[in-house]
Every structure is written in structure tokens, then in C-alpha cells.
Design goal:
Elements (H helix, E strand, L loop, with lengths): L5 H16 L15 E4 L10 E7 L5 H16 L2 E5 L29 E6 L6 H12 L4 E4 L32 H7 L5 E2 L6 E7 L18 E2 L4 E2 L9 E10 L38 E10 L5 E7 L10 H14 L26 H7 L9
Parallel strand pairs: 2-3, 2-4, 4-5, 5-12
Antiparallel strand pairs: 1-3, 6-9, 7-8, 7-10, 10-11, 11-12
Length: 376
């Protein structure tokens, strides 16, 4: 019998093991079906060995752009392995469709996740996908909710076993009044507090949070977004602690519908005294609303966990260094890791986010944005 050199035997053995593992990197796509989620492997950094799942799925604030960029920052700069999930019509797997409310494939990744980002809006997901979310929360694992996560679910089927996750739930399960947003994050959808697309949010560190690790490397005004302030009911429930307050700011220049920031700038200095769209509500800065806070949560029958929520959130908000730093700091804090004095939050790759807005189905059909477009 002919003897093969050891190097050749080793090559064939490794090839065989690779085929049997069934693992797939972010640069490989199965030949028989399109890629439906993307994973960025963390190679080095404090987060190496930890897995973060980032769930996108909203029709307005371009979470499908924001979550891949956040994942790449956490992966490239900090070593976390990050899996990003997207809304898709099952009839067109692999094509991102934020308007399709009933499918986010890949949620089984939560089974091995150390932390989850939720950036969805009014979803009504099938039983198996909701069960993955429920199982994760029952374990009391950490959650970061971005903007519309306060109203992450809208369950229209009144016979659904997940009805209590609905933003408007006021049924017999009193602890679930206000749905997922209120129980897990601390607030549901209430109202716009600033003037939508006409006033911006400047972050002011809340009293008592000056030394909180989430504010490391952040000063007043560093956290900013062209998204307006959301209203919350004060005080926030349970042990919720405001970290950043949202100062409503007027635009100095003219409204520009072709500008991703609508003419709003981080340098705008005029503090608003009225929301023109809600003059009956008085001064939107008296009091200022929390726009970022921490909270403990516990599902009935589950373990206690921690959440961080911020109503500053859109793909354009993530162009702001201080806003990115707030979220990265929150990751470290929720995972019980030492938060760096000034985390590296440099953007990774080309990042040209779209203005936040609703689009019709024809827009998404024509755009034909694919999950594979977010491969490195």
C-alpha cells in the first residue's frame, strides 16, 4: 500500500472535519439558499468568547443599517462575535424587507447569546420565533433596547399566546401591562416629545449618573441624534435609573428633506421652549425626558436580568461618536466587564446611513437589499 506524506493526510483530515462541522463564516454563502443572517467573528479584545445577537426589524429608523455597523464595531474593536438578524419575507429569503412584520429568521442564535440588542418596531412574529425570545428573557440575560424597542411588538391576533408582549396590552396579566417595552425595558410607546424631523436630541448626563460606567468618556452634548425625544412616564418603573436626559434642541438652519439629518446639526445651540406640533403640552424641556436608562427585569417564572434602553436610535444617530460610545459602554456594563475610560467606537468600513423615514413595498422591491450585502 502506498504511504501518503503526513502533510497530505493532515490536509484531508482537516478538510473532512471542516465539512462535517457545517460551520459557515461571514464570507461564505450556501449554494442552495441565500444568506439570511450574518455573523462577524470576534478575533481579539476583551469581548473574545462572548456572543452578541443584534435583532433588526423596523420600518422607519433603518435598524437594518445600524445593527451591522454596531456589530462590526463590537467585533473589530472589542472582540465580540456578533450575529445580526433581519426582517425578511419568507417568499424572498435573504432579501431584507423591513415592512414584513412576521419573520426574523435566525432567532435560535439567542440560545447561545450572552447579550441581545433589540431594535424592532411593532412586530408580530410566529410562535417558534417568539419562543426563542421568551426563552432568552426567562434566563434573565441582558438586553439593550433601541428606540422603537419600547414598542417592539404589536400582536393583532387576540388569540395569540404572545398577546401580552403587545405594546397596548392591558389584560389580566397585570405585570405585563404595556407589553415587552414596559416590563423588560421600562417604557412602552407613549408619544413624540420633540418635534419629529424638526427638533433634535442633545444628551445631558442625568443627576446621579455622573460616575456611572455607561457615561465613561461622555460629556454633555456628546450623545446626540437627529431623532426627536420620545416621551416617557415619570418616574420610570422599578429600579430604573436615568443615565442620559434628552434636551430638545431647535434647528438653527432650514429644513432640508434631502439631508439625512433634515438640516439638524449637533452644533445647534438653541434649547427648545415649545414643540410646535404639541404646543398644548408646554415646554418639552420642563422636565427633560430620560432618553437612556438602566433597569432590572424579571419575567414571571424567570430569572432576574438587566436591561439598558435608549430612545436615541437611528442609523444616522450612529454617525455620532458619543451615541456609539454610550451603546458600547452599555454592552460592557451589562456583561459585568470593566468599562474602558474611553472605548474605541471608530466606524468600521464605509458607513453612509439613510435618513429615517417610512418607505412603501415598491421601494424595498426596487432596492433589493440583501443580507449578503453586509458581508465584510
Amino acid at each position: 500500500m502506498m504511504k501518503l506524506p503526513l502533510s497530505i493526510l493532515t490536509f484531508f483530515l482537516l478538510a473532512l472535519l471542516g465539512c462535517q462541522s457545517g460551520q459557515q463564516t461571514e464570507t461564505e454563502t450556501p449554494t442552495d439558499e441565500p444568506l439570511q443572517w450574518v455573523t462577524y467573528e470576534g478575533e481579539q479584545g476583551p469581548g473574545k468568547g462572548k456572543h452578541i445577537v443584534l435583532i433588526s426589524g423596523d420600518e422607519e429608523y433603518r435598524s437594518e443599517e445600524a445593527m451591522p455597523q454596531m456589530a462590526r464595531i463590537l467585533s473589530d474593536h472589542h472582540g465580540f462575535t456578533c450575529t445580526v438578524l433581519f426582517a425578511q419575507d419568507p417568499e424572498h429569503p435573504g432579501r431584507i424587507d423591513p415592512n414584513y412584520l412576521k419573520n426574523i429568521p435566525g432567532l435560535e442564535a439567542l440560545q447561545k447569546a450572552d447579550l441581545a440588542f433589540v431594535f424592532t418596531r411593532f412586530r408580530e412574529l410566529p410562535d417558534d420565533q417568539m419562543q426563542e425570545i421568551e426563552n432568552y428573557l426567562l434566563k434573565g440575560k441582558p438586553v439593550i433596547g433601541i428606540r422603537t424597542a419600547t414598542h417592539a411588538f404589536n400582536v393583532l391576533d387576540t388569540t395569540s399566546k404572545w398577546l401580552h408582549y403587545d405594546n397596548y396590552y392591558e389584560g389580566e396579566k397585570e405585570e405585563w401591562h404595556g407589553g415587552f417595552g414596559r416590563l423588560v425595558l421600562g417604557e412602552k410607546w407613549v408619544a413624540h416629545h420633540g418635534h419629529h424631523k424638526h427638533q433634535s436630541t442633545s444628551g445631558i448626563i442625568a443627576e446621579g449618573a455622573e460616575n456611572h460606567p455607561i457615561t465613561n468618556g461622555i460629556e454633555n452634548g456628546d450623545v446626540w441624534g437627529p431623532t426627536d425625544v420620545y416621551r416617557v412616564r415619570l418616574p420610570l418603573p422599578g429600579d430604573a435609573q436615568p443615565i442620559i436626559l434628552g434636551q430638545v434642541m431647535n434647528r438653527a438652519g432650514e429644513y432640508d428633506e434631502n439631508d439625512p439629518f433634515f438640516g439638524l446639526k449637533q452644533t445647534d445651540s438653541e434649547v427648545a421652549t415649545v414643540n410646535p406640533a404639541r404646543e398644548q403640552d408646554g415646554n418639552p424641556n420642563d422636565p427633560m425626558m430620560p432618553v437612556a436608562w438602566t433597569k432590572s427585569y424579571q419575567l414571571p417564572g424567570g430569572q432576574t436580568g438587566k436591561s439598558f434602553a435608549s430612545t436615541i436610535g437611528s442609523s444616522t444617530d450612529l454617525t455620532i461618536e458619543g451615541t456609539r460610545r454610550m451603546y458600547v459602554n452599555a454592552v460592557y456594563w451589562l456583561l459585568g466587564m470593566d468599562v474602558p475610560e474611553k472605548t474605541n467606537v471608530d466606524l468600521v468600513g464605509e458607513y453612509n446611513p439613510s435618513a429615517y423615514s417610512f418607505h412603501d413595498d415598491e421601494y424595498w422591491d426596487n432596492k433589493s437589499l440583501m443580507v449578503s450585502d453586509y458581508l465584510k
